[in-house]
Amino acid sequence: MKIANKLKRKLIQIAAFGFTNSHIGNFMEGKLYIGKWKQFCNPGLNCYSCPAASFACPIGAMQAVAGSMNYSFSFYVTGFLLAIGVLLGRFICGWICPFGLIQEFIHKIPSKKLRLPKPFTYVKYAVLLIFVIILPVAATNYMGIGKPAFCQFICPSGTLVGGIPMLSTHKELRDTIGLLFSVKMTILLGTVIGCVFIYRFFCKTLCPLGAIYGLLNKVSFYHLEVDKLKCVKCGKCVTTCKMDVDPVKNPNSAECIRCGACQAVCPTKAISIGFTSNKISIRKEIEQ
Amino acid sequence: MKKNKKTIHRPFFQMGILAVAVAMIAYGTLRGEVMTVFHKATNICLECIGLG
Ligand code: SF4
Ligand code: SF4
Predict the structure, then answer these.
(1) Is A174 an interface residue toward B (CB < 8 Å)?
(2) A80: CA distance to ligand 2 center in Å?
(3) A206, A236: one domain
(4) pLDDT at A2 (0 to 100)
């Protein structure tokens, strides 16, 4: 059961990665896919300047619209994220997001594994507010155009899957490399090192998309429940969770990526994850 | 009693958020945001790749 869940999740993550990054051939020529699917957003974090990307990055798109001359807020992208978030919450992080999968692979590098102190998990909300929401609208030029501050100063996904492939295939772009690129490479390096030691270091600390889905985890249709009548308080779920969540105490935690690891190790099958509520079945059991 | 109330009202709240989300997507589409997204996504984003 444990292996089945792990394997199922990995296969779905890989399939989602392949589906949302199907233009592999573009890496050779360093060009982007420019077809009609690019008007739609990927539910996960996936730089649209990655040659293989089939969709737009929702965080990049949100800043691009808000920072454009014509608008200061993106109803289209915010509505999309709100819809996906209320339906699935951070299931997207656990099962669909390409950068989540990349981080999981990096974490496989043998090393001592560490836990992240809880206060660091709040940094991503500040990143969302300052770099994604405020700066693209507030820091504008004389034409009223703002820059996508998260993409520009932080996003390690953009550096890894957009910056490195694009710069290695375009000499004219390489010639313009400056301080900013060094800053972004340093952040990427820090992220990689962080991910070796801490499971999904970027997801936990910096990802603004994870912050949005995390807030919506609390109200999403897809959710986690613990049947308190079945739970024997063995604590296996807590020690298994790599996102440092206690599903018994906080089933709707903003950190839970709905990976199902806790559910797989629960000896009494007290944990359920899905769209339906088991409250009804609990009530029925009590009535019987 | 309190628990039942919570169980009954949660889906309405969720449906409310979903309805707002759909309305936002429709409004954003109508005022042409999709073209801005498409334009940004189909051109090399200099900020994303660390040059801009
Ligand atoms: S937190 Fe961000 S990078 Fe991590 S899986 Fe979620 S969307 Fe992807
Ligand atoms: S609480 Fe369970 S489902 Fe959520 S992240 Fe932890 S192990 Fe995965």
Answers:
(1) no
(2) 25
(3) no
(4) 53
Size of interface A-B (CB pairs under 8 A): 156
> Do A133 and A195 belong together in one domain?
yes
pLDDT at B15: 95
Query: Which two structure tokens, joined as six digits, stand for A173?
Result: 């772009």
Among A185, A215, A245, give the residue marking a domain's end: A215
How far, in Å, is the centroid of ligand 1 from the Cα of A91? 10
Q: Select from A32, A80, A83 the Cβ nearest to the Cβ of B42.
A: A32
Question: ipTM score of the complex?
Answer: 0.89
| Tokens representing residue B8 in the block | 């009954």
Domain CATH code at residue A245: 3.30.70.20
Instruction: Please state the pTM of the whole predicted model.
Output: 0.92
pLDDT in tens, A2-48: 568 899 999 999 999 999 999 999 999 999 999 999 999 999 999 99
The rounded distance, in Å, linking the Cα atoms of A243 and A115 is: 9
Q: Which residue has the tokens 């292996």?
A: A3
